[in-house]
Each structure stands twice: as C-alpha cells, then as structure tokens.
Give the backbone structure.
Amino acid sequence: MRRLPLQAGHRTASQSLSGRFATVAVRVHTLLRMLVKRRNFLLFAVALAAAAQAPRPLGGSPGPWSTQEEESFLISAQIETVEPAGKGVTHSLKALLSDGIRQHSAHIQTVDLYLPEFRGRDGSVETNFRDSWKFNVAAYRLARLLHLTNMVPVCVERPFQGKPAAFSWWVDNVGMDERERLARHLHPPDIPRWNRQMDIIRTFDQLIYNMDRSQENLLITTDWDVWMIDHTRAFRDSHELRNADAVTKCPPELLRSLKALRRRDVEQQMGDLLTPAEIDGLMARRDRIVAKLEAQAPPSMMQ
C-alpha cells in the first residue's frame, strides 16, 4: 500500500513521543538546576551563620578591638608565655595572653622604686624620685578622660607573680620608634598630621610632668600613628611645668578636654594611683597649660 506524505503540522506517533520526552527532559534539567542553586544558597547561608558564631582563631586578627575589650582582655586573659621586653632599664616583660579565643601580647611592668635623691645620666638631680608601674596606669586613665586613647595604649592594674603590676596593650604594626626614624632620616608623609600628633605629645608630657620621654618611648606604626608608652617616671607633685616652652599649641578638641577636666573625675579615676599632692600638681599644671594656650591663640586657630 502506498503511504501518503505527512501534511505540515502532523507527526508520527514516534515523533510525538520523542518530542514529549525531550520536553520532560528539559523541564527536569531546569528543575535540577534550580534545586542545585537553592542547595548551594542554603549551604552558603549556613556557612555564613556558622562563621559569624564560630570562635575566632588563636593568633588571628579578628578585627579592631574596642577599648573596653582590650581592658577586659588584659585583666582576665591567661598568661601563656613571658620573655624580656628587650628595651628599658626596669626589666619589663613581654607576655603572650590568651582568652581561649584570641591572643595578644602585653607589656608588664612591676617597678615601684623610691629614692630620696636620683642622679640622671645628664647630670640632673631629682629629689623624692619615684619610678612606678602605677604611673603607667594613671597615664592611660588620664588619656581616657582626655579622649587620647588613640595615642596612649590601654593599661590596667593586674597582679603578676605576687606583685601589683601594670599590663599594657602591646602596640600593633609598629614600624619603628622615634630614634630609628631620626637615624634613618625618614620624614612622615603627612607633615600637618605629624605636627598635630607632636603637639599633643608635648602637651600631654607637660601635663603629667613626664621625666622620661625618650625617643624609644614614641612608637610609630606603619600608618604613621604615634603611640606614647612607658610613663613610670611621671606625675611629680610640682605645680610648675617642666618645660613651659614646649607648650605652643594643641588641637582644639584637646584644649576643650583639658578645660573640662575636673578634679573629682581625676580623684575617682586615679585616686588609687596618685597621692593628693600629685593630683594637686596635675590640676595646677592643667591650669597653666590652658592659660598659656588661650593666651597664645583662640581655640579655632590651634590646628
């Protein structure tokens, strides 16, 4: 029998069946792709949630610490290792601390020395000389009152081997100290910013009557942030500035903080570290610094 040709739009049974299979296959493939994408999304979401809740690795850098976190860590973290700090004459130590989640180093100072008379290397003589860990903690607490915690590392009181001690946050990303910078003839990339930091340092040192602002006690990070460390020879009871010529200008926000500094706040924050005579000297020097700065220029001009 002769077969008639298929008309347009007509299919054989086998062609129709294969077409249906092809359509189903496409739909199954599309569905599988959707399921795979959804599964991957769910796995990604679960991984994100787990990462957010998982403990941060020891020795890692989980991000910036808040000042309160640094204080709490220094007070409570376990001491893992201890070694000589490497610089200074008071035999200070560098300790690695851990709270089981994060690690960070601390600078430990236990010095607490009194001498009726002390002769410096430069031939200077100081009566009633004191070199004490207490002044390092006091300097930080004063910096906290003055909003200078971006230039004075966190420092807390904590016992060490049966003695009271100062535990200071080990400054991160230090590239050099001021002595090294001068020896290498390096210049800061942002001179106005550098000068602003130097103005703050000179003012702060006069406020606390710092006897030992050596170049090694100014640490410079890789971002050219300057940190003031080691204030164990400060807070004398003198009402005079050690070097009045060093006070020339300061940022207006520091001047406002100095003017707002109240004795009762100092006593509350530092009364366990300083004697009444030392607090008297601090407040008298504050008054002299404010008067000198205000006499030289209005706050709006002190940039």
